[in-house]
């Protein structure tokens, strides 16, 4: 078990005073058997009224409502937690799901719903054909298939940090041969869905004390990965960017069907056309 502190600061700068509309904040880490949240505090400058709720996925959402105009907006999150995930996890997969293909139970299939349906059109079947390459026969070991698929993403795509908003489609990532961690996560998730698995996107933080993991130039950074539902084992964590299995160095904040649903800070303002001057993000993950 390791104790960690996560600091995440988002700063918006404006060339004039603007009217800030409500902002949606997803900054509170998700508690689980492997993650114990000791404390979590979000501060907003200028002052904002914060109201909390959980979305359909159980993510903690804060809505910041402002009363005054401002030329700067600073949203700072500080979380202290204990992470208790092993580096080489073992999974008790149900006998019925040990070999692929398998069929989800009626209840699991219903509950997974859209999480088992591809979110991107694939008219030329580029993604489907690529995913099928990892199926080694009529009966393939399920966990081995998913491991091979995760490794296959990093073999087919070169990591490249992207500061621009948005995510590439899986076909774009395969065709271009490069992408960021969110592109890796989307490609793996969509490929898993093409094979019939229920899968979801996860966003949060990467703890990288030795600075050996891809996706962070420091001891910590924001990060995106994926989880696949396998009967018996439940949600299994895959980080295709780093070819890793399990969440020993991952701090989840949000899970969702689509990566657009995991944006840490989103909102808008009312001002002149040239009012927006820029933004900066600082993330630190420290013991």
What can you see in these coordinates?
This protein has 287 residues and is of the alpha+beta class. Helices cover 17% and strands 42% of the residues. The protein is built from five helices and 18 strands. The strands form five sheets. Strands 1, 3, 6, 17 and 18 form a five-stranded antiparallel sheet that branches. A hairpin with a 3-residue loop joins strand 12 and strand 13. Helix 2 packs across helix 5. The mean pLDDT is 94.
Summarize it.
The chain has helices at 106-112, 126-132, 142-156, 170-176, 181-194; strands at 2-20, 23-25, 35-45, 48-54, 60-66, 70-83, 99-100, 140-141, 158-159, 178-179, 198-207, 220-230, 234-239, 244-245, 250-256, 265-266, 269-270, 276-286. With 287 residues, it is of the alpha+beta class.
Shape: globular
- Report the β-strand fraction as a percent range: 35-45%
Describe the main β-sheet briefly. 5 strands, antiparallel
* Helical residue percent band: 10-25%
Which key terms come to mind for this protein?
Transglutaminase-like, Bac_transglu_N, five-stranded antiparallel beta sheet, Transglutaminase family protein, Papain-like_cys_pep_sf, single chain
Question: What layout of secondary structure does this protein have?
Answer:
Elements: E1 2-20, E2 23-25, E3 35-45, E4 48-54, E5 60-66, E6 70-83, E7 99-100, H1 106-112, H2 126-132, E8 140-141, H3 142-156, E9 158-159, H4 170-176, E10 178-179, H5 181-194, E11 198-207, E12 220-230, E13 234-239, E14 244-245, E15 250-256, E16 265-266, E17 269-270, E18 276-286
Helix pairs in contact: 2-5, 3-5, 4-5
